[in-house]
Amino acid sequence: MKDISIYDIPFVGLKLGEHRFHYQLDDEFFELFENPMIQKGDIELQLDFHKKSTFFELHFNFSGFVETACDRCAEDFKMALENHYRLVAKFNRAVVDEDDNEDIIWVEDGDTHINIAEQAYELAVLSLPIQKMHPDTKDGQPGCSVEDLLRNEESGSKEVTDPRWEALKKLKK
Predict the structure, then answer these.
(1) What are phi and psi of 38, to 5 degrees?
(2) Which H helix or E strand runs over 163?
(3) Model-level pTM?
(4) Radius of gyration, alpha carbons of the chain
(5) What are phi and psi of 122, to 5 degrees?
(6) How far is CA 149 from CA 72, 75, 132, 133, 154, in A?
(7) In which residue ranges of the chain is pLDDT below 70?
(8) Which H helix or E strand runs over 152?
(9) HSE (CB half, 13 Å, CA atoms) of 4?
(10) What is the pLDDT of residues 70-99, one digit of tens each?
């Protein structure tokens, strides 16, 4: 099991300017989180950390794949994942904003490092599309196997009727 502290960035010792960090988000990384939406995958995270005098800019660049179930045929497949996000880290949240901005991370005054594991996980989950389906083939056909589609269609067509409704239908006559 990975130690979550490897995702710490000790910003106190860093000079002002740009710094680059590389992380590999794999199955062990996703196990760090309770009830993960992503359980298997291999994602390369390149983090560009821009240290400024009063705040930090974090640019998350994801590239890799996750294993997920297809929403069309329910077969597991490897889905490509590529995305980038920008977050800002600010110090000492003195006033609570009514319009909380999700793109801002608050760092306490006494902190010497920032852990990006939770943000990396949440942004990887946000990179997943709403519908997860096999990519279409080159000729435009669904990437799902025909056998899986037929099996799911047959299992979904069986209509199960609650016996209580049958009793009520008899009263109607």
Answers:
(1) -110, 125
(2) helix 163-172
(3) 0.73
(4) 23
(5) -60, -40
(6) 7, 10, 15, 12, 9
(7) 1-2, 93-101, 146-161, 173
(8) helix 146-157
(9) 13
(10) 888 888 889 999 999 999 988 876 555 545
Which residue's entry shows tokens 């880290």?
89
Which of 47, 65, 67, 66 is closest to 57 using CA atoms?
Answer: 47
Note the helical H segments in 18-127: 27-30, 117-126
Question: What stretch of H or E contains 154?
Answer: helix 146-157
Cα angle vertex 29, ends 26, 35, to 5°? 115
Residue 147: predicted pLDDT? 65
Q: Phi then psi for 41, rounded to 5 degrees?
A: 175, 175
Structure tokens belonging to residue 29 = 């990384």
d(CA 31, CA 114): 20
Residue with tokens 């037929």: 150
Side-by-side strand order, sheet with 17-25: 17-25, 40-51, 55-69, 76-91, 104-107
